[in-house]
Specification:
Elements (H helix, E strand, L loop, with lengths): L3 E4 L2 E3 L5 E7 L8 E7 L6 E6 L5 E3 L7 E6 L4 E6 L8 E9 L2 E4 L3 E5 L2
Parallel strand pairs: 2-11
Antiparallel strand pairs: 1-3, 3-8, 4-5, 4-9, 5-6, 7-8, 9-10, 9-11
Length: 115
């Protein structure tokens, strides 16, 4: 069973930046597909960005431009850089890794954008 630990969330003013991290305790992390999702209470979890085992990235249309996903395989870590934060970016951000039938989620990290 894998464990994912997200960090880097917090309270930030509009226009600020954050870098979220997700550290995974799995073997051969480099072979996993990784994604970041976010969710607000009462709403569906939505995809933010993903990165494949070979480094190909995709972004939800509304996330293009301000979000950047990357991975550091030797550190078993994936990052989500968020720039020019807006109040509507407020959400719990979740890390997800999957390979075959394996599908793991982190506990989430809260991002609050407010002045």
């Amino acid at each position: 069973q894998a464990q994912l630990v997200e960090s880097g969330g917090g309270l930030v003013q509009p226009g600020g930046s954050l870098r979220l991290s997700c550290a995974a305790s799995v073997s051969i992390f480099s072979t996993y597909f990784v994604a970041w999702y976010r969710q607000n209470p009462g709403k569906q979890r939505e995809l933010v960005a993903s990165i494949s085992s070979i480094g190909s990235t995709t972004y939800a249309d509304s996330m293009k431009g301000r979000f950047s996903i990357s991975r550091d395989n030797p550190k078993n870590t994936v990052y989500l850089q968020i720039n020019s934060l807006k109040p509507e970016d407020t959400a719990v951000y979740y890390c997800n890794i999957r390979k075959g039938i394996q599908n793991y989620w982190g506990q989430g990290t809260q991002v609050t954008v407010s002045s």
